[in-house]
Amino acid sequence: MELCQLTAYQLHEMLMRKEVTSREVTGSVLKRIAQVEDRVHAYITRTPDLAMEQAALADSRLQKGNAGPLTGIPLAIKDLICTRGVRTTCGSHILENFIPTYDATVIEKLKDAGAVLVGKANMDEFAMGSSTENSFFGPTRNPWDLERIPGGSSGGSAAAVAADECIASLGSDTGGSIRQPASCCGVVGIKPTYGRVSRYGLVAFASSLDQIGPLSKDVRDAALLLQAICGRDNRDSTSADVPGPDFTKALIDNIRGMVLGIPRECFREGLDPEVEAAIREAIRTLEKLGAKTVEVSLPHSEYALAVYYIIAPAEASSNLARYDGVKYGFRAKGNFDLMEMYKETRSPGFGAEVKRRIMLGTYALSAGYYEAYYRKAAQVRTLVRQDFEKTFNQCDVLLTPTSPTPAFKLGEKVDDPLQMYLSDIFTIPCNLAGLPGLSLPCGFNKQGLPIGLQILADHFQEEKLLRAAYAYEQNSEYHLRKPAL
Amino acid sequence: MEYEPVIGLEVHAQLLTQSKIFCNCSTRFGEEPNTLTCPVCTGSPGSLPVLNKKVVEYTLRAALATHCRIAPYSLFARKNYFYPDLPKGYQISQYELPLTEHGYIDIQIDSQKKRIGLIRIHMEEDAGKLLHDLSSERGSHSYVDFNRTGVPLIEIVSAPDIRSPEEASAYLRKLRAILMFLDICDGNMEEGSFRCDANISLRPKGAQTFGVKTELKNMNSFRNVQRALDFEIRRQTALLDQGEKIFQETRLWDAAKGVTASMRGKEEAHDYRYFPDPDLVPLVIDSQWIEKIRASLPELPESKKERFMREYGIPEYDAEVLTTSKPLANYYEVCLHHYPKPKIVSNWIMSELLRELKKDEREIEECPVPALHLSELLKLIEEGTISGKIAKNVFEEMYRSGKQAEEIVRAHGWVQVSDAAELEKIVEQVLNTNAKEVEAYHKGKEKLFGFFVGQVMKATQGKANPQMVNEILKKKLGN
């Protein structure tokens, strides 16, 4: 077993026992990147020199005895989280050479924790996509099958974890962008409650939906990483003033008496039979462990996709207006008047999917359409949220598939945006309601592709997610499998 | 036909907070370009706004002073449009559910009180500034300065209750005075900390419905607001008289040419695509906070004016003038403190002092004669050291040189001559050299008395005590 294949928790114990150094761990990860990155392409920017510097710092902390659970652990960061002095592209031509002057709050926290940053992970441009094919820097490939997509938009973050090109990573989730790639790549991913993690320094796609969260090799690592990045931040008005509990306390192998809600709307047409079988098997496993199941209903979830594709593009159309060639990033060369400069910069600066969503959003906010689209969507969003409120009176957590199918082939859906959008049908309602959600491996199909189980809980009930997920993981072995790269 | 103008004004006032509305950057004016900036106010990717509580407090002050209703729950909205001085591509403002609505301001017009309604006061961020360099050899260039980006503004929207350019001007002066009394805006129109746009339409006198309006921009002084409205009334009147239609459009005032010119029509108007800003949480106002602010409000122009009339017994006109600005009112009261004759002080301020300031286009804050010095001058008159006439010369010199009255009087030897023996000698000289006039006076040409007084004054360079001169002359002329 190489060091890069271990979990953060395992490495932490070894580091504390001085069995290894962070430089050795980081060296192992960098070596692995050098071996497989050509095939996987999980990274947009690699920072090996910076990583070794941080590893050396971590080692001195370990020597001095003031190390925490993440000290010396090599992590990958989705490339829309600002890192001071390290370019942050958002997978876009328009920010190809953008170097932030400041660190995102989560980066400050990770640096304070002594973590090692090995690189910036590939992603769909501005987090818009479900396959990482919308990256200006080319697609990431699924480590389980290089002909397939790793999911998206945090495809690079998920693939890097699955391929042992990092120990764990950060992604962001607006409509499923952590959970769906976690499912596709057979790793654990958490989308925290809206407001749990500061968005300061997260380049916005849809501000009312975006959350940063961890991707990792097992549930414990996800809990450790979430612990490190959560908490109220005065620089983010939407960050919640709730204390971050000790998430590791939820990692007990006991779910006796826990009530699992199974939304009847999930098992519907379009759900891959192998995915359905794996989910039902997972439910049975949890029942055997002492959990009760109850069928519940989320009647408005069928509108969630439509609501999402009004609200998210509307916010995006405004959030992406700042990329105008004036201040930073790409600007078309030439002698232009103002309007020409905007057009010549933004037309080639954004990819097709981003432009599609800017147009959708601009339309939905326009005079004469606002009432019918944006306002109506905002109202239905409230109904979706109320569905969940009612449901959580009946159960502790909800179980659904993370994605209706395992990873599909590269190019399979690029020309059919609606099919692509359906990949997120199970993950989107959670973002609309601001709930926490987790995906963990619950099986493999006949072709050896991972299948993900999604667990949802009420606001700020991440501990319930972790408890259910941990109990399941302790009684399964899917998270231990490694792709043959 | 006779038309009635219908005018509504939108005022943008910069608030005097230390830091910007959504970040910690300073709001100082006149610094090197782009030195007062940070990731937030330059729209760096990933940055987020955090509301400055002081901005809310200042807006609440303005709201309470103008009798507005305060919303317990209000929202920020994004106003989307592209321009290089707007780094995020949207301005954070308020749209649906603003902080305050439904207030009013009372103005004085032709010695009548008139109430102008306020539709709303809302908070928003200012944009940056563009600097255009047309001289460059490589073609013209534009530069952006983001120092002003994020400086807090309140937008005060009046109801269409204004019926003449004079009322518009009176409203603006009153509004500006209120904001300045509250210490929330410096009121400087040239530097743009108090800016005004106007909506104006005409309708046949007596009509109830509104005509088609135009929006006027780019008026950077009270005078220009009035001139632009005057011009626009003439322009619209001429069009309507010729049976033509008014087009809804935005027009720019050209102060040099004295005309308004079309900037953009209704069709080219921006669709700002307002929607609630998801980066900011709804603003919830605690009623205890409102009461705390209400209790801390200073005396405002209206109540100060009433107090001046009541306490000092000065006419309403004087009180109105003296309360147009807080520094002026303070100046008056400091003078009174040292020289408690309200009407005399008021006369001196309104005539001599304001005349000099107006000539130099100076504000009272820049007055070279401190209130204490003016009161000492008035004391010299009272004590008989100088005459009222000389005092005016003394005042002019005080204003020019910044010196004190006594020093000037001493240097020029302007001390009033009140020595009876000396004055008698001078009177006799005057009467002797003007024997013909004395004869004419005795024959009944009594008007010549003033001539004799004048001659005595001339002989003493105005220093003779006028009362004593009168008495001595009467005695010598034998009546």
Description:
The complex is a heterodimer of chains A (485) and B (479). Chain A is of the alpha/beta class and 485 residues long. Chain A has a single domain (3-258, 394-480), classed as Amidase signature (AS) domain (Amidase signature (AS) enzymes, Alpha-Beta Complex). Chain A has 15 helices and eleven strands. Chain A has helices spanning 8-16, 22-40, 48-64, 105-112, 155-162, 179-185, 219-229, 273-288, 304-319, 338-349, 352-365, 371-391, 417-422, 428-433, 462-474, and strands at 43-46, 74-78, 116-121, 168-173, 188-191, 211-216, 259-263, 292-296, 397-401, 437-444, 450-457. Chain A has an eleven-stranded mixed β-sheet, sandwiched between helices. Chain A is globular and about 65 Å long. The model of chain A has no long low-confidence stretch (mean pLDDT 96). Chain B is α+β, with helices and mostly antiparallel strands and 479 residues long. Chain B has three domains: 3-292, no CATH class; 299-412, no CATH class; 420-476, Arc Repressor Mutant, subunit A (Orthogonal Bundle). Chain B is 39% helix and 21% strand. Chain B is built from 15 helices and 16 strands. Chain B has helices at residues 53-65, 165-181, 222-241, 287-295, 301-312, 316-322, 326-338, 342-360, 371-382, 388-401, 405-412, 420-433, 435-442, 448-459, 466-476, and strands at residues 3-14, 69-70, 73-74, 77-80, 90-93, 100-109, 112-125, 129-133, 141-145, 152-158, 194-204, 214-219, 249-254, 259-265, 275-276, 283-284. A nine-stranded mixed β-sheet of chain B has the order 2-6-7-10-1-11-12-13-14. In chain B, strands 5-4-15 form a three-stranded antiparallel β-sheet, with no helix packed on it. In chain B, helix 5 (301-312) packs across helix 6 (316-322) and helix 9 packs antiparallel against helix 10 (388-401). Chain B is elongated, with a radius of gyration of 30 Å. Chains A and B meet through helix 9 of A and loops of B.
